[in-house]
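Field: sequence (string)
Field: structure_tokens (string)

Example rows 1 and 2, in order.
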Amino acid sequence: MKTVEKINRFFSQFLLWIGGAFLAAMIMLTCGNIFLRLVWVPIPGAYELMGYFGAMAAALALAHTQIRRGHIAVDVLVNSFSKNIRRFLNVTNSALCLVFFILIAWQIGAKGWTLWRTGEVSESLRIIYYPFVYGTALGCAALALVFLTDLLLVLFPGKEVRG
């Protein structure tokens, strides 16, 4: 189990760095666009690129955020339940989220495949954008892997639990 957790952490950290690079690109693009607007020459397609880069930054940070328990959770009611009920709820939540994000990754990947096969390009810049769709699917698949690990940790509580 420890090996799976290490792989999970490494992969999510790697995706987080890539997402951070997209976030840095968004900052540079925004600053460049603001500066160039002062001289009346905005960057063409900046709005379109911001959308793609934002999707990548968010999707690639999902797994790392789940590992760190950074998503919003209101557990006032759940904490009042017994240990067995909380364990059941954790198993149910992890299993449902695992299935949900596997389906999301699959459907987004299928959409990327369609875009790649048809050769569709973006509206303003006329660039291929299926790599951004695949990147979003990868982020969802990585999140599903984290939920799989969470499920295994709840089902086999004697193993090392991450903190």
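Row 2 begins here:
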Amino acid sequence: MPASAPYYPIFLDLREKPVLVVGAGAVALRKTRGLLEAGARVTVVAPRWRPEFESLPVRLAPRRFRSSDLRGACLVFTATDDRRVNRRVALEAKRRGIPVNVADAPAECDFLVPARVRSGEFQVAISTGGRNPRLAAELRRKLETLLGEPGG
């Protein structure tokens, strides 16, 4: 794909769909919460996790990532603090045809997660193509203020 090609915006119905999250730090926690809001069935694979994960309705696999963890997943997020693990997860997911989001490498992503503003059933997604997440977050905050929905 040419470097300048835009991403195709899409809203996915993840209700009851199996999603794999590799990693259990702050970024993985934020992504997991968003997936749970969308109704996904989330499995989190990580040797250690933030305590907040224990109160979430997820399946926790307390170990390192294995290729077999991808079995059945329709979507994958990798957000570890280990670049090699994130790359390995991405390569394995792509090999199996499973769309993957790599927290520390937008160029390796099949999809990006936009900044999002929600007001009831109304949603606005904001993306900079992974190039300027701070700008996207700032636009999100401005829209929240405009809509009177701080914290979206």
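free_text_note (row 2): The domain at 18-108 is CATH 3.40.50.720 (Rossmann fold).
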